[in-house]
Design a protein that fits this description.
The protein has about 775 residues and is an alpha/beta fold. The chain is built from 28 helices and 20 strands. The longest helix is centred in the first third of the chain and has 22 residues. It catalyses: 5-methyltetrahydropteroyltri-L-glutamate + L-homocysteine = tetrahydropteroyltri-L-glutamate + L-methionine.
Length: about 775
């Protein structure tokens, strides 16, 4: 151990900091921390918050009981961090719904339309979820993750005012418990760049909001906290020179305040690039860098970091692999020799990983030894901080365990399946292409003989309590497989009957047997593991259990045929089979870090391709391969995007090009702004693409036209994210608008997305109106309606 490490540079003395020309925040105090995380999960280790919030919405829990669940979860989170040896604890990363929405509340930027609701909590939830009369804020993906944030709306009428009650309340709660609290807020640059602004460029509002951040910093200083964390993840994406200049000016202004905590600007999900230089040149004391998605070399090479406290994100907050402690230590020591001081940290908030491996007793023991979930990552941070402080010998046991895990993992035979690798190596371009689309269309038209503007749905029907209870009972052994199948078939029969009654043209089986569209397939592939309790928040109270891809992917047997065949046996209408595409399976799983995503995608694609062949053999004529995460995985930097789109489109085509011309391949895309991937959507070469469009008023159709897209398209005619039932007129209006952009021969009629989160009654009314609207518009054009 070199001198600085052994003499405890980590005790963090003020001499590391370049406090420039203003009062030093409390000199002679220990300022720099040594071990931290950037944020914590909040749904609760047993999804306590999900359950409480949903009970509150249902009217079965009152506000004070809900508050107390929140308080309890916060206390447990902080206690765990402190007990593990984390000496600076993020506070205000708790949320009843979403941290961007919390920030909008903090800045007084909730939309006018919720202002009539008296209760603060109900106003908050109305902005998040809408009511029968109020539209919610839009929801979209948080960078390249499967977490969704609410998009704040900024209008000329926005009057920003500081409402610091939540952050101050949580800080006081933490301080009262003796927690070394570091309040966390989303920074002004990221907040504005991620908002929707209907007047000026988003950053033109900086002058309105920066004074509120200044006021907040003063209030936080009053509480006695030493540090504040200001999250600016927007700085890891490409930013213009003007945006970087604006960032520099914001942090110059905040750093110049003479009554404030030390500022840690946190970045995550990638490299800061030029933004690092801009930040280093300001007077902020600390910068958090992501050393998993971003590069150490860049940080080390940046002049000025010798004056900063660097929170080094060496522990992966996005993936579940146990850290290579030797590698992390090397990085930390390299950085320590350059930076003012260094703290061990996670690469991003632990929001994106499950709470703990405790209780995952079904996991293969070898696999388990390769993993670290939230609690284990917290301990890895503390372990590394010990080594940096006291030398490697102080963590001898942990180093040995980390090395042993790496060795058993590298040599595990399940990681390499030679048959699959040989099959992939032998692939040619012909396995990624089909007959030209017009020829396929002719073949499919005579096969299916559908009316103009055919109506269909995206796949799932409501996941009722009865369905979930049946699955839970099967899991606990209370019912057998035969009884489970009987109950799922009853559900399928019900959904098929409903669709026939509604008069839909292409039916689906409703996906009742799927716990989740990704997990369901992962559970059936070799090479994936599913967790029992590895829940991660996706949005609001909705959670997912991302499966873990650890080895080569193989499909031991068909996965969907029996369910689809059963549904088809009940009707003369075509039943569309639904599969999940390779990109989405990867995006919503924890992926292997020992091979490229492109390789993993092709392995999954081969397995899906085999499933399409089996479906076709069993008589299925329409197969939809969902890729809702196509846009989500798009790299944040433009320079990396075309390589991604090439392999993503290639994997989809590998999955879908093995079928005959007479078999229609559909795909479905949702949850995003498609502008950046429009060319890739055309490249998928799917016969029909159903795409979210209701909230963007069909604009996506013009974008598709602009790239010469000439395949079938089903722009979503109503938003399934809201309980509101759209009227016939409204849907007919959307269809008429769509017909202005797309010839009738190519236009399909469907909702924006699957119906699994909706109630049965809403679904029935909405779909009835949708089918009526299709009939109305067909009649207007003299196309006969069946
Ligand atoms: N992975 C994934 N990501 C996605 C989506 C998606 O569908 N899947 N869609 C987009 C939006 N995100 C979403 C994420 C989750 C849910 C969702 O509905 N989640 C469900 C859980 C789904 C699930 O895993 N269900 C399991 C377990 C259900 C459960 O909680 N069972 C109870 C017992 C039964 C009961 O009493 O209800 C238990 O385990 O305690 C099942 O059906 O088997 C929830 O949070 O409520 C919807 C959309 C984008 N990202
Ligand atoms: C998030 S996309 C969902 C697609 C899926 N087939 C469903 O209908 O639920
Ligand atoms: Zn969807």
């Amino acid at each position: 151990m070199d001198e600085r490490g052994s003499t405890g540079a980590y005790a963090g003395r003020c001499r590391w900091f370049g406090w420039r020309g203003h009062e030093q925040p409390e000199s002679n105090v220990t300022l720099a921390f040594t071990a931290t995380v950037l944020g914590s999960p909040r749904i609760g280790p047993r999804r306590e918050l999900k359950k409480a919030v949903e009970s509150y919405w249902a009217g079965n829990l009152d506000a004070s009981a809900l508050e107390s669940v929140g308080r309890d979860l916060r206390r447990r989170t902080w206690t765990e961090l402190v007990d593990a040896g984390i000496d600076s604890v993020p506070v205000n990363t708790f949320s009843f719904y979403d941290q961007m929405l919390d920030t909008a509340v903090m800045l007084g930027a909730l939309p006018e339309r919720v202002s009539g609701i008296d209760s603060e909590l109900d106003r908050y939830f109305a902005a998040a979820r809408g009511t029968t009369t109020i539209a919610p804020l839009e929801m979209t993906k948080w960078f390249d993750t499967n977490y969704h944030y609410l998009v704040p709306e900024i209008t000329p009428a926005s009057r920003f005012t500081l409402n610091a009650a939540k952050v101050l309340g949580e800080v006081e709660e933490a301080l009262a418990l003796g927690v070394p609290a570091r309040p966390v807020v989303i920074g002004p640059v990221t907040f504005l760049l991620l908002s929707k602004s209907d007047d000026r460029a988003p950053l033109d509002h900086l002058d309105d909001v920066v004074p509120l951040y200044a006021e907040l910093l003063g209030l936080l200083a009053d509480t006695g906290v030493k540090w504040v964390q200001i999250d600016e993840p927007a700085l890891v994406a490409d930013r213009t020179a003007a945006e970087l200049e604006a960032t520099r000016s914001v942090y110059d202004r905040l750093a110049a305040l003479n009554h404030r905590p030390a500022i840690l600007v946190a970045s995550y999900f990638g490299d800061l690039g030029d933004a690092l230089t801009a930040l280093v040149e300001t007077g902020v004391e600390g910068i958090a860098v992501d050393l998993v998605a971003g590069s150490l070399d860049h940080v080390v090479a940046t002049p000025g970091i010798e004056g900063k406290h660097i929170a080094a994100g060496v522990i992966d907050g996005r993936n579940v692999w146990r850290s290579d402690l030797d590698g992390s230590l090397t990085a930390l020591e390299t950085l320590r020799d350059r930076a003012g001081s260094v703290a061990v940290s996670t690469s991003c908030s632990l929001l994106h990983v499950p709470y703990t491996l405790d209780g995952e007793n079904g996991l293969d023991p070898a696999l388990r030894s390769w993993l670290a979930f939230g609690s284990e990552k917290i301990r890895e941070v503390a372990t590394l901080a010990t080594a940096v402080r006291s030398g490697h010998a102080a963590i001898g046991d942990q180093l040995a365990q980390s090395r042993a895990a790496a060795e058993t993992r590298a040599s595990d035979p399940r990681l390499h399946d030679n048959a699959i690798r040989a099959r992939l190596a032998a692939l040619t371009d012909s396995e990624r292409s089909r007959t030209p689309a017009p020829d396929r269309r002719t073949a499919q038209d005579s096969e299916l003989s559908l009316p103009k503007l055919p109506t269909t749905t995206i796949g799932s029907y409501p996941q009722t309590t009865a369905i979930r209870v049946a699955r839970a009972a099967l899991r606990k052994g209370e019912i057998g497989q035969a009884e489970y199948v009987r109950r799922m078939r009853a559900e399928i029969a019900d959904v098929v009957a409903l669709q026939e009654d509604l008069g839909l043209d292409v039916l689906v089986h409703g996906e009742p047997e799927r716990n989740d569209m990704v997990q369901y397939f992962a559970e059936q592939f070799d090479g994936f593991f599913a967790t029992a309790n590895g829940w991660v928040q996706s949005y609001g109270s909705r959670c997912v259990r991302p499966p873990i891809l650890y080895g080569d992917v193989r499909r031991p047997k068909p996965m969907t045929i029996e369910w689809i065949s059963y549904a088809q046996s009940l009707t003369d209408k075509p039943v569309k089979a639904i599969l999940t595409g390779p990109v989405t399976i990867l995006a919503w799983s924890f992926v292997r870090d020992d091979q490229s995503l492109a390789e993993s995608a092709d392995q999954i694609a081969l397995a899906i391709r085999d499933e399409t062949a089996d479906l076709e053999t069993s008589g299925v004529r329409v197969i939809q391969v969902d890729e809702p995460a196509l846009r989500e995985l798009l790299p944040l930097r433009a320079a990396d995007q075309s390589a991604y789109l090439d392999w993503a489109v290639g994997a989809f085509r590998l999955a879908t090009s093995g079928v005959a011309d007479t078999t229609a391949i559909h795909t479905h895309l949702c949850y995003s702004e498609f502008g950046d991937v429009i060319g890739a959507i055309a490249g998928l070469d799917a016969d029909v693409t159903s795409i979210e469009a209701a909230r963007s008023h069909m604009e996506v159709l013009d974008d598709l036209n602009a790239v010469g897209f000439d395949l079938g398209v089903g722009p979503g005619v109503y938003d399934i994210h809201s309980p509101r039932v759209p009227s016939v007129d409204e849907i007919a209006g959307s269809l008429r608008a769509a017909l202005g952009a797309v010839p009738a021969e190519r236009l399909w009629v469907n909702p924006d997305c699957g119906l699994k989160t909706r109630r049965r009654a809403e679904v029935e009314s909405s779909l009835r109106n949708m089918v009526d609207a299709a009939h109305l518009v067909r009649a207007e054009h003299g196309w006969i309606s069946t």
